[in-house]
Amino acid sequence: xxxxxxxxxxxxxxxxxxxxxxxxxxxxxxxxxxxxxxxxxxxxxxxxxxxxxxxxxxxxxxxxxxxxxxxxxxxxxxxxxxxxxxxxxx
Length: 90
Known about the structure:
This protein is an all-alpha fold. It has helices at residues 18-40, 75-89. The longest helix has 23 residues, at 18-40.
């Protein structure tokens, strides 16, 4: 019987296989993501400036001021401009 060459044999092929490379790359990416998400909140004792006291609150609902005046929009004009802009600009 003829013995076939096995490319996955580690003793005969010292090069890194695709499978081992992908396993190592996946482990590295996963550990990087876990480290980044775990370490991001470690030093934050206070809320950053500009955040609301309640979850889901907007600047206007929490009593904040915005640098522009409120202006009521014409719904039909906005609809037409949006429709035309979609086909013109993509």
